[in-house]
């Protein structure tokens, strides 16, 4: 029996400009290409898990516009349970402005739009379906008080919590305590512990600090350098796969979605991390977040 994956998160339409390099302050440069891709950390993670074969549901809000309609169509095509996806009556869909350079690195600004309207009542209603042992996955793009509420609800239901702390910020100890899987990247790890950690040894110290606050598995994603974990049974580093990156947008989401998928199949966390590393390394070789998420048959 597989666990169901419940995602609570954003729907953002990504407007992506590719250029050789990022412009400097006050500078105009000529870009190479422009595309519009569906994105947002919530739906990216949901699609990543669903394309691999996970049983996925999502709670979120789309805009009262063409982008909102495009997301509703996508949800049907991806076979994601979307009975808890609402359309805003007054707000446009969330938008992301993304610059990608020739190394595939990105800079992102998002405007939340309809995503701001998810309410506690929506969350309460969603949790009626959630049972002990189900997986609840969320991120920090939605209202922070709502994230706290989601975590409290998930703990009270004894669901397995995956918190991807992106965009990064500091979190209260009461929130960290009891989280099953916390998945910061290096920048987000530094924000969580208020320090600057660079080497693998530093990351181990940071991960142990978060573990001491009650996080059961601290998994730090390291981009091309893979990922590492501390869960009280030792610190382990898994190297990344060497690929030529074209666009790194959505790589972290691919990692989280794949991790959720593997945990939903009750796979061991080390095997899950190796699998998630592999999926993330495929995603960076293609443009866009959702268009790059592989199906299980493509691995
Ligand atoms: O993690 C990548 C995502 O972050 C993009 O799709 C963008 O929409 C932002 O939410």
List keywords for this structure.
299 residues; alpha/beta; 9-stranded mixed β-sheet; 4-stranded mixed β-sheet; 9 helices; 23% strand; globular; binds alpha-D-ribofuranose
A few lines on this structure:
The chain is α/β, with parallel strands linked by helices and 299 residues long. It has helices spanning 41-52, 66-77, 120-127, 144-157, 173-176, 186-193, 200-212, 251-264, 269-283; strands at 5-8, 12-18, 33-39, 56-62, 81-87, 94-100, 106-111, 135-139, 160-164, 181-182, 217-221, 227-230, 235-238.
Report on the structure:
By secondary structure, the chain is α/β, with parallel strands linked by helices. Helices cover 33% and strands 23% of the residues. The chain has helices spanning 41-52, 66-77, 120-127, 144-157, 173-176, 186-193, 200-212, 251-264, 269-283, and strands spanning 5-8, 12-18, 33-39, 56-62, 81-87, 94-100, 106-111, 135-139, 160-164, 181-182, 217-221, 227-230, 235-238. A nine-stranded mixed beta sheet has the order 5-4-1-8-9-10-11-12-13, with helices on both faces. A four-stranded mixed beta sheet has the order 3-2-6-7. Helix 5 links the parallel strand 9 (160-164) and strand 10. Helix 3 packs parallel to helix 4 and helix 8 packs antiparallel against helix 9 (269-283). It is globular and about 50 Å long. The two termini are 23 Å apart. Alpha-D-ribofuranose (RIB) is lined by residues 10, 12, 14, 39-41, 44, 96, 108, 110, 141, 249-250, 252-253, 289.
